[in-house]
């Protein structure tokens, strides 16, 4: 049996200067979410999340398409019901709940499951030419799994329109409805991604993880309970080693240790 080599990979991981870049590299298949690509993507996400040197994760791609969604060739026949049933929800959950910020970088279209990946990321930047579509209904299926990450991002009216019609929309519309953060000219894409990455590296790693938990939490029924929980959380981070280092750095007019190491 022939062993796998790096050139056989459909997803690559590169770590440099605290940034883990995960690149979808199956351009012949429009970076469709095949079983191999899903498996490798999940593995590289886990590697980045467990690497203490990694501060920020960037999800990007080769080729003209970011991700065309599920590999429909693999979804035909008796195994169709199990298509991605385990790996894909796990991939979306890893990105969504990652204690490290995840930034999506798109130079080309995202469809169906590919849009779910974009929505799971904390920050998403796309070139103006990028297009998006929830194309599921047009092939007789439902955007069920991706709705878990997409619906918290989208304006409700836009979600109804775009989920039900399956129409293609551009990056400017995606930014306007909350799917992405920025739509920029293609030649400014890397500068915009780097702007976000460098800003994220200024945050304390524990504080960033805690803030992501804060953003995901379900709100209590009463405001009094909400304030009580948030007061406890605030006090805990003020008293933490990272919080005390940040306060000392501010008063001493220097960069905190995590910013220096970055």
Automatic annotation (TrEMBL):
It comes from the Bacteria. CDD domains: crotonase-like. PANTHER family: ENOYL-COA HYDRATASE, POLYKETIDE BIOSYNTHESIS ENOYL-COA HYDRATASE PKSH-RELATED. This is Enoyl-CoA hydratase family protein. Belongs to the enoyl-CoA hydratase/isomerase family.
């Amino acid at each position: 049996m022939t062993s796998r080599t790096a050139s056989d990979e459909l997803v690559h991981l590169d770590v440099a200067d605290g940034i883990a870049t995960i690149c979808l590299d199956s351009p012949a298949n429009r970076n469709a979410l095949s079983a191999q690509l899903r498996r490798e993507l999940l593995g590289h996400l886990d590697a980045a999340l467990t690497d203490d040197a990694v501060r920020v994760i960037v999800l990007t791609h080769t080729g003209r398409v970011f991700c065309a969604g599920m590999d429909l060739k693999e979804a035909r026949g008796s195994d169709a019901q199990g298509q991605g049933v385990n790996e894909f929800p796990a991939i979306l959950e890893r990105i969504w709940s990652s204690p490290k910020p995840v930034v999506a970088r798109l130079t080309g279209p995202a469809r169906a499951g590919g849009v779910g990946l974009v929505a799971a990321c904390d920050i998403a930047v796309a070139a103006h030419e990028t297009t998006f579509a929830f194309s599921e209904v047009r092939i007789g299926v439902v955007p069920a799994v991706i709705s878990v990450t997409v619906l918290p991002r989208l304006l409700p009216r836009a979600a109804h329109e775009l989920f039900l019609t399956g129409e293609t929309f551009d990056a400017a519309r995606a930014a306007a409805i909350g799917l992405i953060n920025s739509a920029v000219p293609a030649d400014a894409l890397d500068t915009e991604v780097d702007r976000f990455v460098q800003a994220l590296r200024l945050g304390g790693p524990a504080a960033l993880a805690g803030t992501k938990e804060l953003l995901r939490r379900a709100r209590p029924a009463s405001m009094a309970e909400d304030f009580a929980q948030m007061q406890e959380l605030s006090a805990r981070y003020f008293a933490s080693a990272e919080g005390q280092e940040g306060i000392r750095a501010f008063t001493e007019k220097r960069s905190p240790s995590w910013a220096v190491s970055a």
